[in-house]
TrEMBL record:
A divalent metal cation 2 binds at H158, H184. Belongs to the metallo-dependent hydrolases superfamily. TatD-type hydrolase family. Pfam families: TatD_DNase. Keywords: Hydrolase, Metal-binding, Nuclease. CDD domains: TatD_DNAse (cd01310). This is Deoxyribonuclease tatD.
Length: 316
């Protein structure tokens, strides 16, 4: 292998760097020192050159934009309200229109200054209706799609157990979005993936996308022209119990992970997925598809640049 992995470059299109665990804070308690810079540096060292930080409500979107401002050309942000948080629209001071207006302002301003590259994370999640009921999810997914069209940002999408409504609402709006968008952390069926690709959308693959044998078959069939890769850290780590494990036999090991209580500089934290693991995602996809990891990386990089710009000026 030698220095081969160093030549590969990655975009982590879905990374939750606003999560306090990347600052050593777990459930409101500081368990170890803030190692945010180390997390970024570890990823940069393995060729992860760009990061798209997910916004899942107004506060997180604002935080994602702040991080993008602090790391220009490296970090970028998405702006939107996740379906599981869609009930926030009705409890927001000033009501739904005030929250939509705040999202609109943030997206417009930060798109112009280069920090925001996508509208999301928006979509539908019928697995977790206890967090936000279906009627609110549908209403505010549609409202945010209209905002995305107005601001002209590609979509960063979430879909769980809701494919029919999800595709119906998207079908009405996608013709007005030249860059279309991406369904991230994809765990749906082969047929669902094929329909999304037909709509012109890309598919984001991470550890959660390769848990089961059925997932593996779907990943095998994702066209390279519609593939992007992500870690979704601190979630979606690749585990030895997952179906993907058999495709990681020869991959370079990650830095040592220790329990958060035993953390010391240079270590990962057990159970906290990081962007440094993105080569493992690419490697597993390559093995599943029977192609080289270079092919996977080049396709994913080009697809991310084409859709999200990421400093190339393609978006504006």
């Amino acid at each position: 292998m030698g220095d081969e992995p160093r030549k590969l470059r990655y975009v982590d299109i879905g990374i939750n760097l606003t999560d306090p665990v990347f600052r050593g804070l777990y459930h409101g308690t500081q368990r170890h020192e803030n190692d945010f810079e180390d997390v970024l540096q570890r990823a940069l060292d393995v060729g992860c050159e760009k990061f798209m930080i997910t916004g899942s409500d107004l506060n997180e979107s604002e935080h994602a934009v702040e991080i993008a401002k602090a790391y220009p050309g490296v970090c970028y942000a998405t702006v939107g309200v996740h379906p599981c948080s869609a009930k926030h629209f009705d409890t927001h001071p000033g009501g739904p229109s005030a929250l939509l207006s705040a999202l609109n302002d943030l997206a417009k301003k930060a798109k112009e200054s280069g920090e925001v590259v996508a509208f999301g994370e928006i979509g539908l999640d019928y697995d977790r209706l206890f967090l936000t009921p279906k009627d609110q999810q549908l209403k505010y997914f549609e409202a945010q799609l209209e905002l995305a069209v107005e601001v002209q940002l590609p979509l960063f999408l979430h879909s769980r157990a809701a494919s029919e409504d999800f595709e119906r609402l998207l079908g009405a709006k996608l013709p007005q979005l030249p860059k279309k968008g991406l369904v991230h952390s994809f765990t749906g069926t082969l047929e669902e993936m094929e329909r999304l690709v037909k709509l012109g959308l890309d598919v984001g693959v991470n550890g959660c996308s390769m848990k089961t044998d059925e997932n593996i078959e779907v990943v095998r069939q994702i066209p390279l022209a519609h593939l992007q890769i992500e870690t979704d850290g601190p979630w979606c780590e690749m585990r030895p119990s997952h179906a993907s494990a058999k495709f990681l036999k020869d991959v370079q090991p990650l830095p040592k992970a220790v329990k958060k209580e035993k953390w010391s500089k240079g270590h990962m934290v057990k159970g906290r997925n990081e962007p440094v693991s993105i080569p493992h995602v690419a490697y597993a996809i390559a093995q599943i598809k029977g192609i080289t990891v270079e092919e996977v990386c080049e396709a994913a990089w080009n697809n991310s640049m084409k859709m999200f710009g990421l400093g190339t000026g393609q978006l504006n």
